[in-house]
Amino acid sequence: GQSLEQPSEVTAVEGAIVQINCTYQTSGFYGLSWYQQHDGGAPTFLSYNALDGLEETGRFSSFLSRSDSYGYLLLQELQMKDSASYFCAVRPKNYGGSQGNLIFGKGTKLSVKP
Amino acid sequence: SQTIHQWPATLVQPVGSPLSLECTVEGTSNPNLYWYRQAAGRGLQLLFYSVGIGQISSEVPQNLSASRPQDRQFILSSKKLLLSDSGFYLCAFSGTGSSYEQYFGPGTRLTVT
Fold first, then answer.
1. What is the pLDDT of residues A40-55, one digit of tens each?
2. Disulfide check for A2: which of A26, A60, B58, B95 has CB 3.0–4.6 Å away?
3. Chain B residues closer than 8 Å to A41 by CB
4. Are B9 and B109 in contact, with CB atoms under 8 Å apart?
């Protein structure tokens, strides 16, 4: 089967660095995506790792290690507006009739304190 | 630019009533289209996806159905709503071959009473 595990909640202070981990169990997948969702809003795409290693986009970075079945999202110089839920998602291979579609984790609620 | 519209924003419906949620996409052709449901404080559950007009795949058996009458129009329907159908419904699109990068509409918050 396919499953992704994320911490349910993380709290950090403004200006700090926070890492949100995502571990997964899947028989094979194309890559790992990250999405941000503010309360009451729609998810927005943040990043995608097709290959192992680090992808950097401004204050946000995402990492993937297929050998460790593990990835993370790194947020630097935290701002109050970063308070949101963050979801990891995989595109599984050979997932019945949904090949290539996303399976989402349950999300991590990040609270940034002053 | 690519945009996605979804309506209504909120909806309160009695049990047993029908449902129709509509989603349209602009600025792209032949997108992959998706319907998700999100329960409060939970992740996203894929309900339906479509790779073309009239092509619908269902992920979760339930009393919901989807249709794609036009290239950039996706409709979620039900003949009789259940209490368990309450939730946040999200439509999304992606380019062909890039389902890892999906763009979501503003969502419809459905409450079945």
1. 899 999 999 999 999 9
2. A26
3. 106-107
4. yes
